[in-house]
């Protein structure tokens, strides 16, 4: 069984949602605004450009001759980050960068406790640096892990600890313990609430947003660092053990083919994207596309 944080979260949230998404391969044709902006920002950072036209042309945003406010905001978020990138990453300048890898897709074994096989744990790291640093015993190599978040406000960084623990496990399992993880950082890029003014042209709006992100970067960009040596190793070990239990749980649910609805999660914040199907609304299937390997 191949598992990931999102896959586990989906099953724990609602088994029926898990089945529709990961077994039946359904996904909404129209994505949420927050998800679309996040994907656009990640794409721009990965490709080191605030010209997001190639990403927008893929159809994630509404296609028209004119940008929407959200497209301008996503563009400005990337613009502000790239303009201030050196300042944000200042703490890491003491290292010599050997390699910079974006969207590193890792797949490692997760040994089952009850099944005679191993699961596969999958995770994607937004950015990882292989660096060298000087010690009393000479130069050594190390890892720096960076994750990007987009939000409308400063997040509670403790909520990301499970993701941080997953990254630690993935990197150590894949590359071994000889190369240590030196630092893990989350860069949060906050979404602006600025909107197009009456009688303001789209180009004026674009320039105003860029100035806002460039000149007031401290209001929109922040780096939160986790020093691996200060993290609770017992908590990390417990997390990995629990991760294995969760993977075994998913395997059992799939083998038993038991995917009940969790009615308590149907109308949580934003509502479940599969609600039209579960409530058998007319034309519901036209709102979804099906993945077929």
Structure description:
Strand 5, helix 6 (161-175) and strand 6 form a beta-alpha-beta unit. The mean pLDDT is 92. The two termini are 16 Å apart. The strands form 2 sheets. Strands 1, 3, 4, 5, 6 and 7 form a 6-stranded mixed β-sheet that branches. Strands 2-8 form a two-stranded antiparallel sheet. The protein has 293 residues and is of the alpha/beta class. It has 9 helices and 8 strands.
> SS-based structural class?
alpha/beta
Strand content: 15-25%
The helical percent reads 25-40%
Order of SSEs, N→C? EHHEHHHEEEHEHEHHE
Rounded radius of gyration (Å): 21 Å
Report the sheet with the most strands, covering strand number, pairing sense and barrel closure. Answer: 6 strands, mixed
Mass-distribution shape = flat
Mean pLDDT: 92
DSSP strand tally = 8
The N- and C-terminal alpha carbons lie at a distance of: 16 Å
Low-pLDDT regions: none
Number of helices: 9
